Every structure is written in C-alpha cells, then in structure tokens.
C-alpha cells in the first residue's frame, strides 16, 4: 500500500471519528451551511451522528413487538421482525416499533395492520397473526447495581386474520 494511500485512509478515518465525536456532543452540523448539511447527511447515513447515551438518565423505555402466527390447524409459531444478522435493519425495525406506542392509537393500528399483512404474505400457511407489544421499562445504573432489573409489561395486543377467512 502506497504512503499516499495510507495518508488518505488515515485522513478519512480521522474525519469520520471527528463526526462521531461531534454527534456524541450533540452538535447540529446542519447549522453550518451547505457543507454542514452534507456532513450531517453523511453522519446520519453512516451512524456517526449517534448520541451514544446508552447509560444516560434520559434513556427511554423500549418497545418490543412479537408476533404469533397461527395456521389452519391451530399450530402457533412466535416470531419477530428482528433478524439478528443485520444491525441496520434491526435498528430500522426498532424505530418502526416505536410507532406502536399507545400515544397515537390510529397510527398504532395502521402500523400493526401493515406489519401483520407483511407477515401473512411471508407465511402463506398462516391464517392469523397476533401482535403483542411489550414495554421494557429501563432502570438507572444505580438501580441496576442495587438489584433492580428492567420490567416487561404488555401494552398492546391485536389480532389480524387473513381476509380469505
């Protein structure tokens, strides 16, 4: 590898890490004109704009959606939309799951029906999909050290049947 190429890669890595640090510091790059908006777009696409507040006090409770598929014989299979193989796709699914929050019942019903329809299309043997959304209530690090653990509470359930039924 040539010296010039190595310097280019080092420069690109340094620029990316600088954007990661700016994202962690909550710096809004889009305020800095066209170049800032371009860097903000790159940061969003690459994940460099993540805030990395995993143990921050403002971490919100998480929602998790699980689906139970029922076939004509009554056999039940539980599934999730998360793949576990692609981090970006799972992050997108988690963001979609946030739309299942009970604060907007109309949006929740539309998203639920859309997800159920997708599962029915992927699993033609299924005649029914039962959606269960659980809220996973977070605890602070201090509470965790004291023995508290996140609690799971079901906040929404819905049943969808194949139209041919």
Descriptive keywords:
4-stranded antiparallel beta sheet, 5 helices, 165 residues, alpha+beta, elongated
What is the first-to-last residue Cα distance? 64 Å
> Strand share of the residues?
15-25%
**What form results from the Cα inertia axes?**
elongated
Judged by helices, strands and strand pairing, the structural class is alpha+beta
Write the topology of this structure.
Blueprint: H1 3-24, H2 33-46, E1 62-71, E2 76-79, H3 87-98, H4 105-122, E3 126-137, H5 141-145, E4 151-161
Antiparallel strand pairs: 1-2, 1-3, 3-4
Explain what the structure shows.
Helix content is 43%, strand content 22%. It is α+β, with helices and mostly antiparallel strands. The chain has 2 domains: 3-46, no CATH class; 62-161, no CATH class. A 4-stranded antiparallel sheet has the order 2-1-3-4, covered by helices on one side. Strand 1 (62-71) and strand 2 (76-79) form a beta hairpin.
